[in-house]
Amino acid sequence: MNMKTLGIQIKDRRIALKIKQQELADLAGVSINTVVAIERGTGNPCLRTLLSICDVLGLQLVTKLKD
């Protein structure tokens, strides 16, 4: 999964939950600019940031690590 696809999923879930971007940012402990960039697929967030956002939205983040 690339960042654009992940961003779309995060945005769709946020909208479904009727949470504004600023609310998501506040609840996840990140800046609004971070949320906007992730939703657009242009951000390069650290894993901790993605986990925080997914936790707020009730999403599960599954990663695949290569050797």
List the defining traits of the structure above.
67 residues; mainly alpha; 4 helices; 63% helix; 0% strand; globular
Structure description:
By secondary structure, this protein is mainly alpha-helical. Helix content is 63%, strand content 0%. The chain contains four helices and no strands. The chain has helices spanning 3-16, 21-28, 32-40, 47-57. The longest helix has 14 residues, at 3-16.
Helix amount, in percent? 55-70%
The rounded distance between the terminal residues' Cα atoms is: 18 Å
Overall spatial form: globular
Mean pLDDT: 91
Main sheet characteristics: none
* Low-pLDDT segments: none
> H/E series, N to C?
HHHH
Number of continuous helical runs: 4
Structural class label: mainly alpha
Q: Which helices and strands occur, and which strands form pairs?
A:
Elements: H1 3-16, H2 21-28, H3 32-40, H4 47-57
Helix pairs in contact: 1-3, 2-3, 2-4
Outline:
With 67 residues, the chain is mainly α. 63% of the residues lie in helices and 0% in strands.
